Each structure stands twice: as C-alpha cells, then as structure tokens.
Amino acid sequence: DFGFKIPVLVDAKETLARGYGVTGLPRGILIDSYGYVIQIYKGMSEELAGDLRTRIAKHSKEIIARRGKGLRVFIENFENVDDRGKQNQTGQKTAGALRKAVAAAGIATANSAADSSVIISGTVSDLGPIVGVEMVLQEPEKRRELGRDRASIIGGKNEGLTKACLKLLEPYRGK
Q1: Which residues pair with residue 149 across a beta bridge?
Q2: Per-residue pLDDT averaged across 76-91, rounded?
Q3: What is the H or E stretch that residue 16 is in?
Q4: Rg for the chain, CA atoms, rounded
Q5: Of 12, 34, 165, 172, which alpha carbon lies 20 to 30 A from 105's?
Q6: Measuring CA to CA, how many Å separate 37 from each of 6, 41, 163, 172?
C-alpha cells in the first residue's frame, strides 16, 4: 500500500522478534550500513511511511557517498597509558606503523576523520621489548564502536599488530 519494495523477514521461530523486542506487527526496523538500529517503527501509517522514506533516502545518500570513496581509514595517534610510552612516543610510532601497514595492504588512508569511512584509535602500553596495543574501530559519524582487538609488538616487529588491524578492517574492505 505504501509503495515500498523491501525484503520481509519471516521469523517463524520468533528468534529475532524476541531479540528486538517485537510485541506486535507490523514492525519496521531501520538498520544503518554498520548494523546499528536507527529507528524502530510500530505499525504503519502514511506519516510513518513518509518518515521512513525520508530516513532511507538520507542514509542511502550518505552510504553511497561514503562507499563512492571506497574504504578510507583514518588512523589516530594511539594514547600512551604509561610514562615510558609518553617518553618514547610509542602511540605516535604505533599509529605510523599501522598507516604503513594499511597502505601496503592497498587500503587508502584518510587525512581526517571526516574524510574517512572508518577510524582506528586505541591505546598502547610500552613495556620495553613488548608493547601492548588495543585497537578500536569506529564509524566516523557518531564514533560508534564497530570492533576491537588487541595485539603485541614484540621486539619492534609489527606482524601481530598488522594482522589484527587487517582482520578488523576485513568486513569493510568490500564496502
């Protein structure tokens, strides 16, 4: 009746209905390109249909613009959580190593968070021959977390860090 051509989920065992708290039908759930729930619609009316069309159009334009640029990663300098890291600028060095690793993997880096499709930030703990790194992958609009991983730099070798970073980015490489 409202002219929508959208997939309809048949949830015979009501698994998703329980997960999303659906208590009546029809129910619409608008999910963004990162998998976050934007809006839950209860019932359907011309007013709700208009709102849904507007939101889908707005988010579609944002997604198309972002995907048109391809995957563009902004890597922030990592926060040093200890004095040794601050003294050695380990956070900046870790971010630099990640920028090189991402570029070597053929992934574009962005010069700012606003120009990126995802952001990598995190913390480092410099323990001398071992540096502990926690990476956080975020979407740039609201900086919602998309993923998180930990890695170590052992004896200045970044292989574990690079592997963990590329694993975090893998779901976004085709988007």
Answers
A1: 135
A2: 96
A3: helix 15-20
A4: 21
A5: 34
A6: 16, 11, 30, 18
Cβ proximity of 132 and 84 under 8 Å: no
Residue 5: strand, helix, or coil: coil
Q: Which two tokens stand for residue 92?
A: 């900046």
Q: Which tokens belong to 108?
A: 């574009």
User: Looking at residue 1, what is its pLDDT?
Assistant: 62
Output the pLDDT for position 95. 96
Q: Are 132 and 124 in contact (CB under 8 A)?
A: yes
Q: Look at residues 167, 50, 58, 51 and name the one whose alpha carbon lies nearest to residue 102.
A: 167
> What is the per-residue pLDDT for 49?
80
The token pair at 42 is 């209860």
Go through the chain and tell me how many residues it has.
175
End-to-end CA distance of the chain: 32
Cβ–Cβ < 8 Å for 116, 96: no
Compute the distance between CA of residue 39 and CA of residue 8 in angstroms, rounded to an integer: 17
C-alpha span between 169 and 6 (Å, rounded)? 28
For residue 11, the one-letter residue type is D
Written as six digits, the tokens of 172 are 């976004």
Q: How far apart are CA 109 and CA 122, in angstroms?
A: 17
